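Hi V.,

You were right to ask for the full record rather than a summary. Here it is.
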Amino acid sequence: MKEFVGVGVALITPFLEDESVDYEALKALVEFNISNGVDYLVISGTTAESATITLEEKKKIVETVKLVNNNRLPLVLGIGGNNTKSVINEINTTNLEGISALLSVCPYYTKPTQEGFYQHFKAISQVSPLPIILYNVPGRTAKNMLPETTIRLANDFKNIIAIKEACNDMAQYLDLIKNKPDNFLVISGDDDLALGVVLAGGSGVISVIGQAYPKLFSEIIKLGLSEKPKAAYQLFFKISNMISLIFAENNPAGIKAVLSSQNMCKSTVRLPLVEASQKLKTKINEAVLLLQK
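Predicted structure:
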């Protein structure tokens, strides 16, 4: 459980200008994050543009991250979807050696009932050989998994150990933290709310901005976990504008613009996403320079 306390980063998938995967940039990004103090890495989440990554590419991405990581940090792999049987099949046919947990998103598009959410994750729990981190992101899935459903799953299945909650609603976070089992982790999926969630009793964050500023964001969350809110917020205010900027148009176009400004990768994304507008890139470049001071 302690493996997933602190800062996990939702890794992007870097692309070259022809939209092929830039594996060299991925290697450099992984090493940069490991060297600068993050606690674990998340592969093939929303920020990785998993919706437009082929299974063959996904396999190679996972192997690349494993190679660079060399068992230094826990790895979390995203396996989720809106077809329960397909999710189960992917779990059963994926080489999970070197993976510490699965991140499984709530079914999107189909808009299940709360009982549907429960039965979906029950089925996944029963076949998964690894701990499961639920991922609730209603802004993308079109349906919110309510705290009572999350807590029911946490109580009923020992291998469901955490939720990445990205509801962007502090009241829902507080409901989860108040009523969760003692050994269940509430992990923020909202960079802007992460510090408040940690100070309220959450376990950390799976962060987008963290991969561009791993040292700074890790220090913010560590201070929050150490119950030092004043010092934590002093650091948070330095990066809060950048957090707003990277989500101003779409994710991961914003964070890729930041990483491009840092010469970590190209800003290329795959359709139907498009790169950040020039207006936003200009604002991001200015913010990058401010954070370098």
